[in-house]
Amino acid sequence: MMSAEKRNKLAGYLREYAITQRQVAKIIGKSYVATSNKINNKTDFTRSEIQILHDALHIPISVFFD
Length: 66
Hints:
This protein has 4 helices and no strands. It is mostly helical. The longest helix is centred in the N-terminal third of the chain and has 13 residues, at 4-16.
């Protein structure tokens, strides 16, 4: 699972760029709840989801990894 520090980096990035969890959910094709679970470190993002978010929103891949 993503460490709390990385999760905070992701959440911080989303806040900084005014990206909502609903936008992330739509882009990766998951429900709001499933996406919230991923952002809150209850489940992991898949590699393909990370790549999709990087491509669509320019989120640095390093935000997802230690």
